[in-house]
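Action item from last meeting closed. Structure (79 res):
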């Protein structure tokens, strides 16, 4: 009985062609991106930094209040 061999695709060539297709798609998508202007970027950065500072202060105050209530308050009750 004769054995027939099935032709297998070259895995290296397949990988290279898929990688090239992927990079081509990435380049096409990057050209569609609507990049922010410098002024928009500065405004958004200021908002993020400002909100981070405000949130940090709020969390710090809540931590201080809970520490006073739970740690010192319970210590006073236990005496």
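Sequence:
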């Amino acid at each position: 009985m004769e054995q027939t061999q099935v032709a297998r695709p070259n895995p290296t060539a397949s990988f290279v062609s898929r990688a090239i297709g992927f990079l081509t798609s990435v380049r096409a998508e990057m050209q569609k991106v609507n990049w922010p202007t410098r002024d928009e970027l500065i405004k958004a950065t200021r908002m993020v930094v400002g909100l981070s500072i405000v949130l940090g202060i709020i969390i710090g105050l809540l931590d201080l209040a809970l520490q006073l209530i739970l740690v010192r308050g319970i210590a006073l009750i236990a005496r």
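Note appended to the action item: The mean pLDDT is 89.
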